[in-house]
Amino acid sequence: xxxxxxxxxxxxxxxxxxxxxxxxxxxxxxxxxxxxxxxxxxxxxxxxxxxxxxxxxxxxxxxxxxxxxxxxxxxxxxxxx
Length: 81
Prior knowledge:
The chain is mainly alpha-helical. Helix content is 77%, strand content 0%. The protein contains two helices and no strands. It is elongated, with a radius of gyration of 21 Å. It starts with a helix and ends with a helix.
């Protein structure tokens, strides 16, 4: 399975998007307390950080592949000279 480095982060991005949607759909928390943030604040922040990390994982996997191709071209031209 060569695409596991792309499949898992994409799946986690989709699940985090669903969590953000479901968390924001609840109007009020079931408990009332004197807090400066809403009850949905922390789950949304965690899901957003997870999305950012998964995007970085996908980008990290794609960048070395492109850099390796560039190095191959340079070494081919160096061999000719």
